[in-house]
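Supplementary Note 2. Why include the ligand at all?

Several targets in our set were suspected to adopt different conformations when bound, so apo predictions alone were not considered sufficient. For every target with a known small-molecule partner we therefore ran a joint prediction. The input for nicotinamide-adenine-dinucleotide is given below.
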Amino acid sequence: MKKVLVTGIAGLLGSHFSTHLLNQGYEVIGIDNLSGGYEDYIDKRIIESGNFYNFDLLQASQLDEVFKKHNPEYVYHFAAYAAEGLSPFIRNFNYNNNLISSINIINNCINYNVNKVIFTSSMAVYGIGTPPFTEDQSPSPVDPYGIAKYAVELDLEQAFDQFGLKYNIIRPHNVIGTKQNIWDKYRNVIGIWIRESLAGNPITIFGDGTQKRAFSDIQFYMKPFELLMTTNDCEIFNIGADHEYELNDIATLVQKIANEFGYNPEIKHLEPRHEVKDAYCNHDKAKNALGFEDKTNIESTIRDMFEWAVKQPVRETKKMEYEVEKNIYSFWK
Ligand SMILES: NC(=O)c1ccc[n+]([C@@H]2O[C@H](COP(=O)([O-])OP(=O)(O)OC[C@H]3O[C@@H](n4cnc5c(N)ncnc54)[C@H](O)[C@@H]3O)[C@@H](O)[C@H]2O)c1
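The joint prediction is reproduced in token form.
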């Protein structure tokens, strides 16, 4: 039975993927500080086996204890705070949480001879360019979140060159599904719109809504993620949906589904954010090497999310402590 450590196990990718691993017969050890995920998202089998650890990855000595105790063979490092638009206002937090904590993971992977570490980077590393982005395009991130992700990518390359630590880099984008954090006001646009609908508030769009994004259902990531343990060492993969939509169209779809559930949100446009207008990727490499196939039916995925969301407890929507207040958007004040 292979031992796999999953960081960010209480989040969207971590919770779904760890259930997949358990069902395939792996032993799973999970870490999460519950800053962006919820304990009840974690598969009960992991909690019951005592293999869930609640601490911040910045706590290097606690992390070392987990590696020492379990000696994982593979590490999926999903933990991060992926609030790209907010990252310029929380620079210190962003680099600590997304870069330094990743370096703590890499140190332990080297020290404990992990077979491979799989890191979720982001499409944010591409920055402004001409989509669809391909893996051979030079990264040029335009915000601290993308810069942190790219720095981890470079560090992984270095760790392989010097210590032989094998790795994969996944660059996902706009993954959606149940167990997404819909209470965070800074990220996960469809989740935000579902929460706004349930609260009787308008669906809010930053700017004119002509930005394009491609959304994919988490369920299609499971097998390709698993395959990375044993194949395609040191490769980078974009992963996500091929079909991009204008946000206006997705907002209208969420509104329609909300109506089916008895909610009647209006759609409201807010001031624009500093963001890349059109961002989506080419996924040929993941299709060819990992058998990735995105069969997302956006309408039914959003309907499933809505059905799940109405059964969730009302959770707190937190305000971050801004390190930079200058030019902060009115809707985040
Ligand atoms: N979901 C997407 O569309 C998407 C797109 C691009 C990249 N990614 C990347 O994929 C990964 C997983 O994303 P997700 O959507 O599952 O996010 P998520 O927020 O749902 O899950 C991340 C989890 O990590 C935990 N975490 C954060 N910082 C931590 C820390 N310092 N110590 C311990 N735990 C910590 C959070 O509590 C949360 O449960 C992230 O690295 C993210 O940057 C996701």
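Residues 8, 10-14, 31-37, 56-58, 78-82, 97, 101, 120, 122, 172-175, 181 surround nicotinamide-adenine-dinucleotide (CB under 6 Å). The radius of gyration is 19 Å. Comparable summaries for the other entries are listed in the accompanying table.
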